[in-house]
Amino acid sequence: MPDHAHNQRVRSWSLAGSGPVGVRTRGTTAHNRLRKADRWLVAQPQVQALLRAAVVHEHRSPRAVDVGYGASHTTTVEWARWLRTITPDVEVVGLEIDPDRVLPEREGVRFALGGFELAGMRADIIRAFNVLRQYDVNEVPAAWEMMCSRLRPGGIVIEGTCDEIGRRATWVCLDASGPQTLTLAWDPADVAQPSDIAERLPKALIHCNTPGHRIHAVLRQMDDAWDRAAHLAVFGPRVRWRGALDIFYDATNISAGTPLGPAREHTPGQYRRLTPRRRLSDNSLTLPWSAVAD
């Protein structure tokens, strides 16, 4: 039985009689730790349309809620800056279950006491990073369900994990119907092979990286494609990964959809490319959840 002595429940200041849902976590963070997920999020056409539609068609400010921002407000404020590149009208709220971490408003970001229940709020976008990794795996579905239940129509949840300075990151994108995609992103020079990202898989998958599970098979296929693209290593790890992606796509037969949409028809041996083809500073891969979940 895991020891959660460091994660004691706290008294509610926001929901009378019930309180925030969740447990205290260590709360460590750092500048730019979540930049990979932030870049990915604001590049999604569906996210851009979601936030702009709230302003143009619904005549309201879209709301983004950061669940469990930790001991520092840094990554929440950085997230707000990214989201404001889509629309300056976005309202960003940071929630913490530890009352001692709740801060006064700063840089246009509001902070409050709350957990997975969102302190009674509804949101267009919810982010929960490096939170569930400190929970038991059997607690993940309930946390996902609770956050998704607080989404406005068309909203999404980004739940994931990364290393201490954000060089390796993975996240699940969920909507009201459940998990849709898994994204893996890493600094090209930080890993020897793509499967090194496995140490930062989301809680829902990290214990499944063993033979017989889909995520294990996908990581092995990524490594195989990487090895077959070795002739491109002279051009650097970014170019090599772009070549490896083409090999991976051609060798893999996975039904895929868009990050926020249903599965679509595909040609055998190929699937819709969820990973952007534009040149990025990160190596990354976005897969449909059906490709990695058992």
From TrEMBL:
Record key words, sorted: Methyltransferase, Transferase
Record-linked Gene3D superfamilies: Vaccinia Virus protein VP39 (3.40.50.150)
Coiled coil, from the record: none
Gene Ontology MF terms: methyltransferase activity
Domain of life: Bacteria
Region (Disordered): 1-26
GO biological process: methylation
Record-given protein name: SAM-dependent methyltransferase
